[in-house]
Amino acid sequence: MRIRFGESVAEAMADLGGPANAQNDHALRDQTVHLPWLGKTTVGPSGFRFVRIDNVDPVHPVQLSEVRAVLLLRDVPQVGAFRCDDERLNRIWQVGAYTVTSTCRTIFGTG
After folding, report:
1. pTM: predicted TM-score of the whole model, two decimal places
2. Pairwise CA distance, residues 94 & 81, whole Å
3. Binning pLDDT at 50, 70 and 90, where does residue 91 land?
4. Where are the domains of the chain?
5. Can you say whether residue 61 is alpha, beta or left, with left for phi > 0 and alpha for psi between -120 and 50 degrees?
């Protein structure tokens, strides 16, 4: 299976390189994994909102029985703060600070 993670639909759909210049620099967002027959495989960690799943072997169909994302929070103390009179900007900063301390693992089950 080919698994592509993305923070946006466009990122999850993008090939490595290409017009969007998608990369695997900070995390493996585009990878091929072998799924066991009647088993489970864990992929990650990676932060994402969207996942694209493709079967790369047209001869052998794959039947997924489960795809599950598991949120993992790291116990990292927050260092520093940001606050201004623009509440929208404050919220954007808070979401960014939260994002750097969380990640997901994705579990694929076959059967």
Report:
1. 0.66
2. 9
3. very high
4. 2-110
5. beta
